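During the second year of the project, the team shifted from modelling isolated chains to modelling whole assemblies. The rationale, set out in the original proposal, was that interfaces cannot be judged from single-chain predictions alone. As a representative example for this report, we include one of the complexes processed in the last quarter. Its constituent sequences, exactly as entered into the pipeline, are reproduced here:
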Amino acid sequence: MLTYILRRLLWMIVLLLLISMLTFVIFYLLPAADPAVLRAGKQPTPELVRSIRHELGLDRSLPVQYWLYLKKIVLHFDFGRSYQNNVSVRSQIFDRAPNTASLALGGVVVWLLVGIPVGIISAIKRGRWADRIAMGSALVAISAPVYWLGLVGLYLFSKDLGLVHIFDGSGSYPDQGNLFTRPFATAPTLFLPWIVLAASFAAIYARFLRGNLLEVMSEDYIRTARAKGLPERTVIFKHGVRSAITPIVTILGLDLGILLGGAILTETVFNIPGIGRLAFDSIQKSDLPTVQGTVLLGAFFIIILNLIVDIVYAFLDPRVRY
Amino acid sequence: MALLEVRDLKVHFNTDDGVVKAVDGVSYSVDRGQALGIVGESGSGKSVSSLTVMGLTRFFSNAQISGEILLDGKDLLAASDEEMRHLRGSEISMIFQDPLSSLHPFYKIGDQLVEAIRTHRDVSRAQALDRAVEMLGLVGIPEPRRRVDGFPHEFSGGMRQRVMIAMALANDPKLLIADEPTTALDVTVQAQILELIGRLQNELDTAIVIITHDLGVVAEVTDEIAVMYAGRIVERAPTDTIFSAPEHPYTWGLLGSIARLDAPRGDELVPIPGRPPSLINLPTGCSFHPRCPYVREAHRRIDPSLEPVAGDSGHHVACLLNTETRKRLWRLLEAGTAPEEARAQVGLEDDVASPKEASL
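Output from the structure prediction step:
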């Protein structure tokens, strides 16, 4: 098991290297605006642009730039400075990651709390009204775009009902603090984003679990459980749900990994200063170091959560051995 | 009074394609400590009838069940779901065809046995575990004290079937239903499992119903055999009689299609021509007539009922041929005569219907 984890961590480093290289190359191949020109302001003189180029290291060859970039990461855990505002990428990411995490983790809790019970009930009541209503709503939730759901939610709950407070100039999210530093101030403002983010996930999870459970309930070992005379509730939960829910762990790990790397739509609608928006803004401004930082962070989360999923799986399913 | 008495059991399933008459009027009984074999092809209704005895067809919302299933005189079809649940696993137990998929892959063997025991008995976990170990030892699992902590995937197919048997017998049921208990196993393991079932039946005095498509499987273990075809019993007799003096052409077909060591070398196995009929549109008359080599015109119209064979009240058969003809046919077949030839020799050729025409 330990050697397996070590091997996977080594692979993670290889993958991150490849990803950073790829981002680097793509960034230079794409016809993006020259970061030096963007930096130089409204009236760039050639001298100014040249000096900025030199300052940012853009006048070096591509491999040398990449090498210097890697060296700083490995030696100082330094991801460089933003071309745009000269802030260290590391501090930018560390500032914003907790905001995204506040959103993503709360969303996960919400969609699991909704999706799992709905999926189970739907499967048990297959074809009956509870199932029809649940699966109908699930279809709506999957189809509704996040920005639409978010705006409708904001209108309903803040403008109309006044249940959610919108902060002047910053939407519904306070400028200071996040779920980890100021949980009681932030949590109420995050309810709406959580629900909006969780809606489609809850629907997908409910449908996934429903399908799984229906399949499991026709397994031979369910027939055995019934033949043993177990109460139907035990048959469904201990024998059925236990099997049906295991694959949920896999998609949960992936989804959480993706979201921790930035939930751009929800972040934008609710004006949450998270990783997703940082990535989006930096792409628009050809801010390579920041783009690299967010890409690497996203990749890191996806890879590490995949690893965690595989480890958890070994505990959930005794047939899995590493 | 018989331990289990099934009277005119019908199990029909409503489907989009029509009503599937999986079991269509089946009656049999099993005495305490007796073993009954139910033999038939896939789709003959043998499994469905047993699942119904267990009350497991209740879980299919499209099943229509009628008739009577009396266990110790109590009608199981009239019992509530909760009453039925208390009987399952304590009074009646069942083991299934595929031991590989019949145990839950995520739970230890011991936990699964403990669960079965504690569902019906008010004992501590430790006591139940002791009982589980005892049962595993009884069914011949080596080192049961250690093996209770194993997961199903760590056991071989034969061992898993032993675990299933241990689980089914843990609460001393009066009746054990074994649905194709050896079909998924290697031939050598098959013999061991059958031997085990036979031994446990003697030791524990449990009545057993063994369902199989293979007459050879039940020959050693059972006292009586019921042959099912298209949802009905077509012949029922003590095991010896089924092998020595079978009366139904379908039983002859089954006997002709099992390999026997005492047959002369070079004897070929004779398959039964055709396929089992659709249970939605059963053939008119005798449902075996499209495949029967001895079919006569009247057999396509008249539906035979299960009646005692003259001179042998323990032997029932549902065939429209008269007893004399059947006995002559069997003697000829036993001597190695081909069905067509036998048909000619007993003088059935005068009738119009040959099986090929009949199937058109």
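The mean pLDDT of chain B is 88. Chain B touches chain A at residues 54, 56, 59, 85-90, 93-94, 96, 98, 101-106, 115-116, 119-120, 151, 153, 164, 167-168 (CB under 8 Å).
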